[in-house]
Write a structure and sequence with these properties.
By secondary structure, the chain is an alpha/beta fold. It is built from 17 helices and 17 strands. Strand 2, helix 6 and strand 3 form a beta-alpha-beta unit. The protein is globular, with a radius of gyration of 24 Å. About 50% of the residues are buried. It binds pyridoxal-5'-phosphate (PLP).
Length: about 500
């Protein structure tokens, strides 16, 4: 085969898998379905023979072993080049794995870190796993919308000044609602304190491919970037990337990141997931501009149509410039539903009933539809708008004087132990009523968006427990809880914990 002129047009790993499958090799290796022959006929029918043929394990000559760079190495190199990283790692356990690996990376350099408080629950899992002592810093809270935006550079500067032992700073951008941080300014602040900046850019893999989108984190100088490639760029669910930025002679060591990734990955990475990363990278790098452009135009029209429906509004570029919002990602369609007679949970269920519309996120006052970079956004957006119109006609506007404000989650409880000590130390299960005032031994994150309301090590407040119960009653769920209905909570057995090790009290910053 003649190699294309532009290396970004290549898919070396996908091609190597296809070639292996096509030559009908003797598969004297796992998986036991043997490329389909040994599979249940129902599975074969459901996912097709070719998917099973391509389900090829690791350590196959000519795919990921043999002459270096192997197709697998080359594919990761191309991913690094496409996003402008020093090195890229394929992840097969989502951006969640990236967050775990980032925590284990930082833990090589010391034991303290400054972390934005509204990070995803997998970042907190990373703190538990690594034992890093977090100093949390509050994002900007929007008093009007009642949601958390990004971290202001001044807040990061203050937190790092208060935490001279920190070995890194960890922020989130974009948020679930599409707010993008001033990443270049956060990088400058982190570097002025001589620490690397880790950015959980799970929602922003597409930002690299269109100049009208906010600058993506690697281009802004971030040192380690976690990217949930499956979310918007369109690789298969559970595939993601961890990318190392910065200069080779400063910041984080690639070998350290590599061993951290290895620690939290299966020894049997799924070939279909990896191939989908290779293909999604090619699609984004070669056609991303046109695809994003078309999607943005379709969504701009949809926003206009939604704003014209009485009682509905959208979150859009009008909120850029508010504290913690340096930019806005237009590939999210977040609808403010406070002006209609039902809440977001009820609307989500009505939309399912009207036209099988299934949303990414729905909360009391806002519902969010997500659009992929390459999908046919216009018909999907029109279908959504039409269903919204029907729903609003059915339920009507909110009664005068009854429009609720955005109800923000209550303030976070005081952090009095490291997440790891609380998670792994002596603990007991108590009723939710008895849990008030106790130290949580688990995270409680209402989902979506999966931002912990409670972290292991924080004191449980009656307001937060009531908020989570209210969310559950409305149809939400809670990640991290041992009792998913929250009748009971796992808490630290304080007397026993004090006997094992004195409580490590972590002052929190600006909460
Ligand atoms: C900000 C953020 N980080 C990380 C994750 C985890 O991503 P994944 O589901 O790919 O593991 C999510 C998932 O929603 C997220 O929103």
């Amino acid at each position: 085969m003649v190699a294309p002129d532009n290396p970004q047009e290549e898919t070396p790993y996908l091609d190597a898998l296809m070639q292996y499958a096509a030559r009908d090799p003797a598969r004297l290796h796992v998986p036991g379905h043997k490329g389909g022959d040994g599979a249940d006929p129902g599975l074969l029918e459901a996912i097709g023979e070719q998917a099973l043929r391509l389900d090829i394990p690791a350590l196959i000559h000519g795919i990921d072993t043999g002459v270096s760079p192997t197709p697998f190495e080359r594919a990761q190199q191309l991913a690094a080049e496409a996003w402008g990283a020093r090195r890229a790692w394929y992840l097969i356990n989502g951006a969640s794995q990236g967050n775990l690996a980032a925590a284990l990376t930082l833990a090589h350099y010391g034991d303290a870190v400054v972390v934005q408080r509204n990070v995803h629950s997998s970042t907190i899992d990373g703190l538990v796993l690594s034992g890093l002592r977090p100093t949390f810093v509050s994002p900007e809270l929007d008093p009007e919308l009642g949601i958390a935006h990004c971290l202001a550079p001044e807040a990061l500067d203050y937190a790092l000044t208060q935490s001279p032992g920190a070995v890194g700073a960890w922020v989130l951008s974009p948020t679930y609602f599409g707010a993008v941080a001033a990443v270049a300014d956060l990088v400058a602040v982190a570097h002025s304190h001589r620490v690397p900046l880790v950015v959980d850019e799970a929602w922003g893999a597409h930002l690299a491919f269109h100049p009208s989108l906010p600058e993506h984190a690697l281009a802004a100088g971030a040192d380690l970037v976690i990217s949930s490639t499956h979310k918007i760029v369109g690789s298969l669910t559970q595939s993601a990337l961890l990318q190392l930025g910065g200069e080779a002679d400063s910041g984080l060591d690639a070998d350290v990141v590599d061993r951290a990734v290895t620690l939290v990955e299966s020894t049997s990475p799924n070939a279909l997931l990896c191939a989908s990363l290779d293909a999604a990278r090619r699609y984004a790098a070669s056609r991303g501009y046109a695809l994003v452009d078309e999607t943005m135009r379709a969504l701009a029209r949809a926003r206009e149509a939604i704003r014209a429906i009485a009682g509905l509004d959208v979150l859009d570029e009008r909120f850029v410039g508010r504290p913690g919002v340096a930019g806005y990602d237009p590939l999210r369609l977040a609808v403010d539903v406070r002006g209609i007679a039902i809440n977001g949970y009820e609307l989500a269920s009505l939309l399912r009933e009207i036209d099988d519309i299934n949303l990414e996120l729905y909360a009391q006052n806002v519902v969010v539809a997500v659009f992929g970079m390459g999908e046919r956004a216009l018909p999907e957006a029109q279908r959504f708008v039409e269903a919204l119109r029907v729903a609003v006609e059915r339920v009507g506007p909110v009664a005068p004087g009854e429009q609720g404000g955005f109800a923000p989650p209550p303030p976070w409880g005081e952090l009095v132990m490291t997440p790891r000590d609380a998670y792994l130390g002596p603990q007991e299960i108590v009723s939710v009523e008895q849990a008030v005032g106790r130290i949580a031994a688990e995270s409680l994150a209402t989902y979506p968006p999966g931002i912990p309301n409670v972290l292991p090590g924080e004191r449980l407040t009656p307001e937060t427990l009531a908020y989570i119960q209210h969310t559950l009653a409305l149809g939400g769920s809670v990640r991290g809880a041992s009792d998913r209905e929250l009748h009971t909570v796992r808490v630290v057995a304080e007397a026993a914990a004090a006997a094992v090790s004195p409580l490590a009290v972590d002052p929190t910053v600006d909460r």
